[in-house]
Amino acid sequence: MRAKDELGRRGEDLAVEYLERQGLVVLSRNWRCRDGELDVVATDRTRLVVCEVKTRSGTGYGSPAEAVTHQKAARIRRVTQSWLAAHRTRWCEIRFDVLAVMAPPGGQVTVRHYPGAF
Fold this sequence. Notes:
By secondary structure, the chain is of the alpha+beta class. It has a single domain, classed as Trna Endonuclease, Chain: A, domain 1. It has two helices and five strands, in the order H-E-E-E-H-E-E. Strand 1 (about 25-35) and strand 2 form a beta hairpin. The longest helix has 19 residues, at about 5-20. The termini are far apart. Pfam families: UPF0102 (PF02021).
């Protein structure tokens, strides 16, 4: 596995642990369709919470949250509609969150959660 992929997988694992500690129930991880992928789909028992996880080892390319562009957010919204259809979910309230994971080599890992980011 490439180092970048391994870092991303580690970040998603940490993000899921964080969400579960916050009381969310994870419904899907890395759900794919022809239009793209959803990193984490969860519920807080009130609404569906679709989470984009971005992991970085440093800020040389910007902060992790900055990587979620308007185009990326639009794609996530489209893919969410496919997820809803595939799971035969009619209407439900949806919140789109970003989890920014910083994992510097040899440093302390941090998870920043941006509920309702887009």
